[in-house]
Design goal:
It contains 14 helices and twelve strands. By secondary structure, it is an alpha/beta fold. Bound molecules: pyridoxal-5'-phosphate.
């Protein structure tokens, strides 16, 4: 397949559609855990054992690397496993700078992991470059963690500016780009070293698997440590999940663009609704990160938005309970729209306001979603 084709063509065709020996358009599902060795001791197929090199990953990892403009990708059995692979590549005594607004399970895990691993953890304000600079200047920093747009208020971090602050130096810049996807933002082009995805979300898009991925810009020493640790630690995605993920990726561009357009429309309508105190969506000029988002994201602002319901927490619960088309469930990035009362999921130490509902916009007709919100707010 010619590699000068556009990313959406490469994604739609899963990097190429014909598979020898039959020319089947859909790649086979590679289930074998082990591979035959020749009498001379060599492995004619180049594979030994599926924990080390599963052919089930080849196509998906190559496609993810291509979509992100990276040199290589690794699949993991969850987004959290991918994040943990990055954390475990650090030595005790290292230092991490992470944003105050960050996927909640990761905040909790960062605190627990760094505490036990003897790693220094400092926080910065997501959108504030001065706060990042101060954090980097306070002590030598090994890892700058960025999540943009960040859960659940969709703060925007200027990736290019943050990466410039981290350089020159030894700071690895990692961007959790789960919400933006490579359709809207390519962090490696903006100077990041690694991109992380919860592939359970938009990359797969159908809420039927848990997976994670890392993509690297260069074959750096950090990447070599991360790559070597995967077969050693055994954080392996199942072959069927890898196969499903490739299928999901084939519609990534369509899904993300449709969800982004729907989220913008819904944000614009709700921003004028007196029953809603505040709409948090980077596509609205009222969002404090709008200007950076407009520069950093192309083709849309993503399918995630949050609303603060006028009248407080009890009203927010009522509205969530009355929604019918939106499903009350955690997670995001599926073709079905979801609503979640975030503070009650995140627990007492959450920075999330108690009247906030997080909406993941799917690919349903936007009129149905608007109608559902209108009746639920009513
Ligand atoms: C869901 C999510 C994760 C964790 O991914 P899992 O696949 O659930 O382990 C990490 N970051 C973000 C932004 C997420 O939404």
């Amino acid at each position: 397949m010619p590699q000068d084709l556009s990313p959406e063509t490469l994604a739609a065709q899963g990097l190429g559609l014909t598979n020898p020996p039959y020319g089947d358009l859909i790649p086979p599902l590679h289930l074998s855990s082990t591979f035959e060795r020749a009498g001379d001791g060599s492995y004619p197929g180049g594979r030994v054992y599926a924990r080390d090199q599963s052919p089930a990953y080849d196509r998906v990892e190559a496609l993810l690397a291509t979509l992100e403009g990276g040199s290589a990708a690794l699949l993991y059995p969850s987004g959290m496993a991918a994040a943990t692979a990055v954390l475990q590549s650090l030595q005790p005594g290292s230092r991490i700078l992470a944003p105050r607004f960050i996927y909640w399970a990761l905040r909790r895990w960062l605190q627990e992991f760094t505490d036990r691993w003897g790693i220094d953890l400092a926080w910065y304000d997501n959108a504030d470059l001065d706060s990042i600079a101060a954090g980097l200047n306070a002590a030598p920093t090994d890892l700058l963690w960025i999540e943009t747009p960040a859960n659940p208020t969709w703060e925007i971090t200027d990736i290019r500016a943050a990466a410039e602050l981290a350089r020159p130096g030894r700071t690895l810049v990692v961007v959790d780009s789960t919400v933006a996807t490579p359709v809207l933002t390519r962090p490696l082009d903006l100077g990041a070293d690694l991109v992380l995805h919860s592939a359970s979300k938009y990359l797969n898009g159908h809420s039927d698997l848990i997976a994670g991925a890392l993509v690297t810009r260069a074959d750096s020493a950090a990447w070599q440590r991360i790559r070597a640790a995967r077969p050693a630690a055994g954080a392996i995605l199942g072959p069927f999940e890898a196969w499903l993920l490739l299928r999901g990726l084939r519609t990534l561009h369509l899904r993300v663009r449709h969800a982004s357009a729907g989220a913008l429309r819904i944000s614009e309508v709700l921003a004028l609704d007196p029953r809603v105190l505040e709409v948090r969506y980077p596509g609205l000029p009222s969002h404090p990160g709008h200007a950076v988002a407009a520069r950093q994201m192309s083709g849309g602002f993503g399918g995630m938005l949050s609303i603060r319901v006028a009248g407080g927490e009890a009203r927010a619960w009522e509205v969530a309970a009355r929604l019918k088309v939106f499903k009350r469930a955690t997670s995001l990035g599926g073709v079905e729209s979801l609503v979640e009362h975030r503070a009650s999921i995140e627990g007492p130490d959450t920075p999330c306001p108690p009247d906030l509902l997080r909406l993941s916009i799917g690919i349903e007709a936007v009129e149905d979603l608007l109608g559902d919100l209108d009746q639920a707010l009513g």
